[in-house]
Amino acid sequence: xxxxxxxxxxxxxxPETAAVAGVSLDLEQGELLCLLGPSGCGKTTLLxxxxxxxxxxxxxxxxxxxxxxxxxxxxxxxxxxxxxxALFPHKNVFDNVAFGLRMRRLPAxxxxxxxxxxxxxxxxxxxxxxxxxxxxxxxxxxVALARALAPGPxxxxxxxxxxxxxxxxxxxxxxxxxxxxxxxxxxxxYVTHDQTEAFAVADRLTVMNAGRIEQLGVPPxxxxxxxxxxxxxxxxxxxxxxxxxxxxxxxxxAVGRFRPARPPGAPGGVTLLIKPALDQVMASDxxxxxxxxxxxxxxxxxxxxxxxxxxxxxxxxGERLLFxxxxxxxxxxxxxxxxxxxxxxxxxxx
Length: 350
Known about the structure:
single chain; alpha+beta; 6-stranded mixed sheet; 21 strands; 24% helix
């Protein structure tokens, strides 16, 4: 039995518009699950339902085999961490971290030991006497995490915990957050709109859209095989083409004919995803070679240097496609080129 079981949970704030539309998922002991999706997809509403801060219109939430319908938020033994940290500005670091422990009326010596242990865990040993206003954004985030962890919650819920930080600081702290939670064996639900953050933190992630789960899986599997065109677009894949499956394993598009590693089934309209890896490229005179399968011929529209790779925009068949070239790209804007596409770069949505 999973530690957390969510079954057919739904919630609407506006008639006939579901914020959460029949979501079901499980969470195992010690697992970090990310709810990933754009603003308004229902991820925070689902988190608040699990926490008891919102009431579901239908469905159940069970924790360790117990139905939580009649359990108030303060009695669920869950921890919460928010985007704005919600620290007490008039209390110092020690008192912020000790707040939840004092609410439980623990002995002063036990509180002091626990606070010091939590501050050391988040690399803030010796910071107990500092005022909140003296801390950087990253240090405040660590204090908020220590405060959420200090009471020893059975489930930790984090709602965009790095959202208020700048990009470079988020890149550093997302790995620290995962390492700390794993060191403690913490079970956590982590809400974010940032795919990089989700990939860095999650054991599993669920991509949400319009209140529903579009895909649930481990990060590499979700990235390698996005389950729907929405997931593909949300993960940053640009090359989604309307096409026609011909029944012989090929897809005909305005850009050309393609044979994926996993060919489509019955003939009919499909969406074809071309992943952006740019491998075999050469100059082209515009003609399509005999056979012409898994080839894209077009004109370089734009080239942007991105450090470890170059983004290459290509105009082909009335479409604008995006590719990524490792290292230096040897062609200029206006050049006509031919790109060989590997079958494993192609995914079909029927």
